[in-house]
Every structure is written in C-alpha cells, then in structure tokens.
Predict the structure.
Amino acid sequence: MKENTNPYEIVKQQIQAAAEKLGLNDGVVQILSRPMRVLSVSFPVKMDDGTIRVFDGYRSQHCDVLGPTKGGIRFHPDVTKDEVVALSMWMTFKCSIVGVPYGGGKGGVICDPRKLSEGELERVSRGFMEAIASFVGPDKDIPAPDIYTNAQVMGWMMDTYSRIKQTYSPAVITGKPLSIGGSRGRSEATARGCVFAIVEAMNQLGKPLACATVAVQGFGNAGRVAANLLHELGCKIVAVCDTTGAIYNPDGLSVEELEHLKDDEHSTINDCHGFSITVDELLELDVDILIPAAMENCITSENAHRIQARIVAEAANGPTTPAADRILAANDVLVIPDVLANAGGVTVSYFEWVQNLMNFYWTEDDINTKLHDAMVTAYRKVTDVAKEYDTDLRTAAFMTALLQLAEAMEARGWV
C-alpha cells in the first residue's frame, strides 16, 4: 500500500500517538486535530506586461489557547490548503515546546517567485496582505518569512498593513529588515537553533563535534547557515544540495567556496570541488549528522531503511513520514524532530515581536544567548519525557507540548 504523505493526515497521526501515551481527554485531541479557521483568498495583480493575473492563497490559524497565532508565509507553486493547515498545526506544538506564548499559524500563495520580477513580487506581497489584513494583527495573528519569502517581502507586507490601519504597526509581522523593527539574529535563528539542538544531542550521546561529518539537504537559508555554524564548530561538511543539484566530497567541502558559488548567478554548487550525486544519494550517505532543510516528505518508508546518519536534525518542516520514523527508530537513528529542531525561528520571531511592542531592542549577543537557553531547555525537557515514557523524541516533543496545551485549555474552560 502506498504511504499517505498528506501533511495534514500526518500531523493528526502524530497528535493522536502522543495523546494516547498521555491518556489525554479526547476533547483536547478533537480541538487540536483541526484548525480554528482557514481563510482562502484570490486577489488580482497587474503584471509587468499590463495583463491581470489572479493569485490564490491561504492563511490558517490553528489554535490560540496560548496566545495569538504565529507562522510564516510561503510563496511556492505547490502550496495547498492541507499543507498550510498542517504547517499551522506543527507551529502550535513548536511554540509550546520552546515556551513561546503563541498558537500556530501559516500562510501561502500559489506562485513561483523565481518567475516574477521584483515589481511583480512586491505587488503579489502587498496584494496578499491586503487580502488577509482583517485576519491578522499584532495581538491576533503574526506572519513571518518562509520558503521563497524574505525580509523585504515582510517589509512590503508590514507597510501595506500599516497603510490600511493608518498606524505604524511593526509588530504585525516578524522577519522584517532591521531598519523597520526587525530583530538582530532573526535570519540565522532557525539554523542556529537547530545547531544548538545538534550540539546538545551530541553531548548527550557522548560524541565529539570535531570532525563529525554532515550532509545538508537544501542549501537555502536554514541549510546554508547551519552548514556554516557547524563548520565553525569543527564539523566536516561533506555533502550539500539545492535545486540545481548535489555535491559530495568525503574529505570535506569548502563552505566558503559553496557560499561564493551560491551567490554567483552564473555558477551552481556543482561547480564546487567534489563529486556530483543525486539528492537521494545525499540522504543515504554514511554521515554523523543529516540535516533535511528543504521540503516535506523527503524521508519515507521507501528510503528510510537506507538512511545511515546517526542523527537526523529536521531543519525543514515535516521531512520525515510516520512510517519512516518507525524505521529510523528501529535502526537506532536519533531524529531531532522539526517541532524542536527548527523552533529557533519562531523563538527569535517572538523576541522581535516583544521588542516591537516595547520599542526597545536587544543586541545580537542578547538574542543568541536567549535562543540558546530556550533551545537547550526545550531539548532537555523533551529528552526527559522520552526517557520517562520510553519513546522517541518526536512523540516526546508532542507529549511535552500537549501537556501545556491541555493545561491551558482546562484553565480557560475549553475542556
């Protein structure tokens, strides 16, 4: 039977598995197994050639029992409603695990930004914010960057919202440029948080970081920064890939060269000194640490038994299916789940929101110290639950979050 890789069905399975371990009230599971509300929008954009094109998008708000919802907006041709809903659900658990007082939100526009001019990209960004402006707000739902969106896109969206509300509203969105209320350390936060979790995992396993081998699937923002940070810690980056291909060198790749090639529009990472391989081959390399930092469902029941990494640190959302999880656990592969491994992004987004509300800004050292403390505390809390209930880290992470969410629901009289 073909494996179900629908992310919405996967996250519901993960919630159910964790709830059963805890023996939770079924009402909690029922509330968390569907989003509070989902907005579907269509909005017109004038293209550079004068034609009008209508774009479709979504914004999902999963659960606000802990606070306003929070989550990224992605621009991608494969965006679906189920994907956006699932990502908003994962965000609720992510926030709870790291102690951030948010619920989960997520948004997406069906488009390929690589085929849009800068002017068209700006008009799509502003058009989507106009379409969802009544749905979001600093104390309601706070968007952020995600796949193929960045600080500039967030700046356009914040400006559009501020114009609509006729008041300067930096706290409506995070991941903005520093000049309009962005936080230092935000662009590196997802990767930095993932690296903090990897370091803690290696310490607990008693394995040295020096010369540990690393493969990174997805050399975008998170994967690129994670490779840099791990290289600085003495790890050997032996393989990376992006949409142009994959490169492998058992003696270690030059991260500096990879960065240069990535930034050169006339080159690709395959021009780096090494051997061209497929993405599937990268995932299956014999390495200490594998970092999936691209899209969902790259590790499935079809390839999980060939994964040789000792640690899989999920910088991406939903890269491992439930069936693959079971195979990896049976093979003693330690999976640091997405809801823990990549929670650094939302943690520093929270710091940005707090700074916007206070109109007082911290240094990058302050931000990184707070992030380190949050990630290490969360990792240890999850591993304690895993030991107590003799379960894997993903189930333990969901259990950790469920305990807090259930307590909040009871306090508010929801269950």
Observations:
- The mean pLDDT is 95.
- The chain has 14 helices and twelve strands.
- Residues 364-389 form the longest helix (26 residues).
- The radius of gyration is 20 Å.
